[in-house]
Specification:
The complex is a heterodimer of chains A (114) and B (112). Chain A is built from no helices and 11 strands. Chain B is mainly beta. Chain B is 0% helix and 51% strand. In chain B, strands 2, 5, 6, 10, 11 and 12 form a 6-stranded mixed beta sheet that branches. At the A-B interface, strand 5, strand 9 and strand 10 of A face strand 5 and strand 6 of B.
């Protein structure tokens, strides 16, 4: 149980385009989803926290207009990187949390912006 | 604020060696403590957790004991395998925020 999927697993896009990443909880309802960014050989940096049906809460320094988060249902959250630039290239990981404390992580999405 | 400190890697061991990865934390209240493992190219997987003092989390031969007196949650395994090669993250969570604070990660390399 407690499986979280992400799609796509890898994406390459041109600078200036937008990219949408999906995060799904497959076998439980996720009241809260988290989006992280991980730089090479570094730890995870929390970008934002989203609760189903409400606006996401962004961490300090994360541009909410650039990283659009939607949590429209209890099993789906999306992260859209708008007008992507090469510095946005990174490994993006989501996690989902149901009623209990434990966060379950997706496999990650590697974004490369050319 | 909350913080987690892990020993820097990489840690390189031979197969069947004993593993310890140190983790200490600073937190208000009584946090829950976690170890996550990240295999190459993948996301994080929960390895084990402990929710109160003196609890021992265990999974796949790994163990960690919640030591409140030393604010530590060291990860141990008696005999590592090549397949254990990965990055290990120590983390804590306060119930109030439900947010995880991660350590910097420790890369483990196990050689045959």
């Amino acid at each position: 149980g407690a499986v979280v999927s992400q799609h796509p697993s890898r994406v390459i896009c041109k600078s200036g385009t937008s990219v949408k990443i999906e995060c799904r909880s497959l076998d439980f309802q996720a009241t809260t989803m988290f989006w992280y960014r991980q730089f090479p050989k570094k730890s995870l940096m929390l970008m934002a926290t989203s609760n189903e049906g409400s606006k996401a809460t962004y961490e300090q320094g994360v541009e909410k207009d650039k990283f659009l988060i939607n949590h429209a249902s209890l099993t789906l959250s999306t992260l859209t990187v708008t007008s992507a630039h090469p510095e946005d290239s990174s490994f993006y990981i989501c996690s989902a949390q149901g009623g209990q404390e434990t966060q379950y992580f997706g496999p990650g999405t590697r974004l490369l912006v050319l | 604020g909350n913080s987690v400190t892990q020993m820097e890697g990489p840690v390189t061991l031979s197969e069947e060696a004993f593993l310890t990865i140190n983790c200490t934390y600073t937190a208000t209240g009584y946090p829950s403590l976690f170890w996550y493992v990240q295999y190459p190219g993948e996301g994080l997987q929960l390895l084990l957790k402990a929710t109160k003092a003196d609890d021992k989390g265990s999974n796949k031969g790994f163990e960690a004991t919640y030591r409140k007196e030393t604010t530590s949650f060291h990860l141990e395994k008696g005999s590592v395998q090549v397949s254990d090669s990965a990055v290990y993250f120590c983390a804590l969570s306060n119930n109030a925020g439900n947010m995880l604070t991660f350590g910097g990660g420790t890369r483990l390399m196990v050689k045959p």
